Amino acid sequence: xxxxxxxxxxxxxxxxxxxxxxxxxxxxxxxxxxxxxxxxxxxxxxxxxxxxxxxxxxxxxxxxxxxxxxxxxxxxxxxxxxxxxxxxxxxxxxxxxxxxxxxxxxxxxxxxxxxxxxxxxxxxxxxxxxxxxxxxxxxxxxxxxxxxxxxxxxxxxxxxxxxx
Length: 164
Description:
Layout: H1 13-26, E1 49-53, E2 63-67, H2 69-75, H3 90-106, E3 110-117, E4 123-133, E5 142-149
Antiparallel strand pairs: 1-2, 1-5, 3-4, 4-5
């Protein structure tokens, strides 16, 4: 399992600009709400975005509200509208769920560079940014994520955990 990296360690320039966008939309608040985000302003990232919704307020009952076309194409699968049941591989659940749960519980962004064996049996070398969203400014009710896939030959060493 990978560990979250801090804001200064976001190496992917696309994710750096997405983080800056999220931070600007939050303003003085801890995190912005979904209604603060504009799909037109986010068009450069749309194919690599995912949006998780927590309709019951419980983490494990999340739903993929949106999954970008580049993510769907990489995995050759569509998870929109589905939840944890879409993760049929134990290895994927062990890698991904703690990443999302940390953002859900703490209400703080996280950046990961990790290798994940998906439920579809594909090795995904990912650079991933997870950004909390909140309607009330305190409790996370959505997570905006962006995933960019790194080349298979990119064997960077993983960092020690650093929290924001």
